Structure formats: structure tokens, C-alpha cells
Amino acid sequence: MGLSGNHNQAEICVIGGGVVGLSVALGLIRNGHQVCVLDESDLAFRASRGNFGLVWVQGKGDSLAQYAQISRRSARLWQPLAKRLQADTGIDIQLQQKGGLFFCLTEAELQARKQMLSQMQVAVGGDYPFEVLDLQQLRELEPEAGPEVAGATWFPEDGHLNPLLFFRALTDSFLKQGGQIIHSGTVSDIRALTQGFQIQTSQNGLWQCQKVVLCAGLGNQILAPMLGLNAPVVPNRGQVLISERVKPFLTYPTGHVRQTGEGTVQIGDSKEDVGFDSGTRIEVMAKIANRARKMYPILNRVRLVRAWGALRVMTPDGYPIYQQSEVHRNAYLVTCHSGITLGALHEGPIADWISQGSTDLPLEVFNDQRFKL
Amino acid sequence: MTNVSNFKRLPSRHDASVTVFVEGQAVQVQAHDSAAAAILAAGLGHSRTTPITGSGRAPYCMMGVCFECLVEIDGQANTQGCMTLVREGMQIKRQQQARLLTDSQHD
């Protein structure tokens, strides 16, 4: 389809077919819109296929209470979304929200974390139900916690899911409900028409739409200025280690190690500024593996079978951008590095905001002008 | 056991004969064969069961990528059969679902 020169039409074009774009797109379909997702290609940096799969709340928004607020709201919306996806597609995305642990290897680390979470608790007027566990208390939850662990912080709203199954469920549900996904190649130009927008793609010609939503991850940096928006996002690499499948021995996800529904142990949480390089480095893999085996010494017995790098989509302050363009009111920007945690928010109230133009979310703090001094 | 394998060995390369045991049954293979090749030659059928549903799987890619050929080799669970060269007396058994980590292997 789409010989150059043809004008393909959609009511709303969502640029970016990762979990952020598809979550928003699915919510727009729910609002009754006709939606087309323009997805670059397999050459794109795909954070959606490389991420860790946490639905994580604790510690998020330590310097911005509204970020804590929207992360927790998304966490509360996750069970109904997972149920709906299963009803629509038959796919169980393995969502578990039984609580999560953040291991601290030293007493100093544990005290610093306790202080941070205490401050967050005060900032929200007390409703922030974390607990600090010493090693003995931790072992009541995770008996394999190692002797070098000082303790952990516990938060009951944390959880995890299988991000690849979530991605697939989103895709299936969206297509089933009449959504279109076009493997369009790179979007090279977006311009406002008298009414609506015209989008130039490298592989599928021109698209015209009434409304456009940028969910292009790292690509937003280039696309946003075309619509009077600002997205100074940069890549931050995380590396992940994957083990052989072993019978379940971990009950709760942690910030660094989790066990999937199939028994795979996933180890991660490295952070590197290396530009647009999604490769791996042995020094970093060794470091995260070493931390993991201090957390759970039984991991010394586990064989690793795979490793990869993936690029987080980071703003200068680490918080998302939700912005309606001041120049072109039918253009929106959605970008974040926690596309899984915030997935239910994006499918829900964020899509409703884009559909209806208003919201009760505190989106003003996530504006795109805050990086301009 | 009666060999019901659909795989027929081509007369292209001859090597010393090695005896391995597939689920306890002696099987003659060639010294350059992998454990996965031995399974196919023996006509074992499924050589592992999946971690969740327990459905049967057999060697597939034969080049170390797909992990369908996981078997227990000389007591070592979750071993890639296609990446393991046979040796005299090797014991190859089906991998039954996920490996139990509290076993004594790989310390």
C-alpha cells in the first residue's frame, strides 16, 4: 500500500509502535477513534523489547510528588487492564502485584533509602506504606537472601509482568478492534495543514490525520520540534542477563533481580551513558551479576544463557513529558522511561486526555518547557 | 529399543563408534555426533517437557539458538544437547520441565 504521492488517511496517527505508543493507541480506540500506529522498523531502538518488566512504585518521584502520584495511579489500574487484555486476546501477561523488594547490601545504603522513602511519605501526608526490613525479616519473605545483604525496603504496590507478552497482547487487542499498525519506516517530516497534519514516511508515503501523538521514544527528540514541542531525550543503556529456566524460588521482584513466570531469572539495572549503542560490555555484566549473587547466593548455581543491552529514553530530570502542543493544539507528546509501569496510565487517563482534551491528572508539571532555562 | 527414528544417517562421514545411553538404552552413534543428534538417531521422540504446561519438545535448530534440545547429561540438568559432543558411556535423559535449583549440581 501507499505508493508515494498517495495520501493515506487516519483520524489519529500515533507515531511509535512500542509499548508507549500502543498503550496510548489502544486507549484511543476505546474512546471510539480510528487510529493508525506508524511503527518505524526493526532497525529502531526497541526499549519495549529489552526492558525489565517491573511495575514499580517505591522510590519513584522522590523529588516530584506528582510522579509518585501518577506511578501509583497506574499501578492501581493494572489489574483491570491485564484482565481486559486477557479477555480480548487470551494472553495472560503474568501480572503479579504482591509487593516488591529493594535490596540494600550495606547498612549505609539501607539507611539512605529509608530516609528517602520517609521523606516521600511525609510529602504525601503519610499514605506511603513502605517498610524497612532487616535481613532476618527479609528472609521471612525471601529465604534465599544472602548473608551480605543488610536488608531491604518493601512496598506492597510493586509488581512485575512479562513485557513481551504485554507487548503482544497490546498489539493483538489493538488490531482486533480495528486499529492499524503500519511498518512505515522512519518518519522524516510532519507538517501542519490548514486542518490536520501530513506525515512523510520513508516506506509508506504520506499520511494525513486530524490528530497526531508522538510516542517515538528516542525519535521524539527530532520529531517534537516539527510540532512546536520539545523532547530533549537521550539514551541511557541498561544491560540485562537472562538465566536458564529453573523452578520458582523467588516470590517477589526486586529492582535488580526477578524471576519470570517461566522460571527465567532476569538480572539488570545497570546505567550507562554510551550514546546510541545497545550493545553489552563484559565489565558491566560482571558487575550486575556480582550484585545479584550477593543478593541471592543460590544464583551461583544458575547458568546464564543470554545478555543484551537496551536504551532507556531519558529526559534531563528523568520524569515523563506529557504535553499538548501550544502551537498545534491537535498534536501531543508522550515520552517516558517507564513504559511498563505507566502502561495502564497511558491506556487509561492519558489516552482519555488526548481524546477529550482535559484530565484530572497533574500533567502541568510534566510540561515540555521545564528544560528550557 | 526399537529404533523408530525418521532420521537416516547419510554415508558421508565415517568416524569411530561410541556408545551412549538415551533414557538408559544403549545407542551406537559416531564420535562427532552431538547429544542432540544421538537423541534424534535413537528416535526418542520428545526429549524435554516445557516448564509450565509440560508439553513435549525435541531438538530443533541444532545450532545452539533455540534451547529446545535441553536434556540432562550425566546428571547436569538443562544442558543444550546440540552443543554437547557425545562421549563413551554418556547418560542422556529427558529434561523434565524447569530445573530444580536446590539440586546439588553446578555448585
Describe this protein's structure.
The complex is a heterodimer of chains A (373) and B (107). With 373 residues, chain A is of the alpha+beta class. Chain A folds into 3 domains: 3-50 and 164-232 and 317-372, 3-Layer(bba) Sandwich (FAD/NAD(P)-binding domain), CATH 3.50.50; 100-156, no CATH class; 234-314, 2-Layer Sandwich (D-Amino Acid Oxidase, Chain A, domain 2). Chain A is 29% helix and 25% strand. In chain A, the strands form 4 sheets. In chain A, strands 1, 2, 8, 9, 10, 11, 16 and 17 form an 8-stranded mixed sheet that branches. A 4-stranded antiparallel sheet of chain A has the order 13-14-12-15. In chain A, a hairpin with a 6-residue loop joins strand 16 and strand 17. In chain A, helix 1 packs parallel to helix 5 and helix 1 packs across helix 8. The longest helix of chain A is centred in the first third of the chain and has 25 residues, at 65-89. Chain A is globular and about 65 Å long. Chain A starts with 6 loop residues before the first strand and ends in a 17-residue tail after the last helix. Chain B is globular and about 40 Å long. Chain B has one domain (17-94): Ubiquitin-like (UB roll), CATH 3.10.20. In chain B, strands 1, 2, 3, 4, 5, 6 and 7 form a 7-stranded mixed sheet that branches. By secondary structure, chain B is mainly beta. Chains A and B meet through loops of A and loops of B.
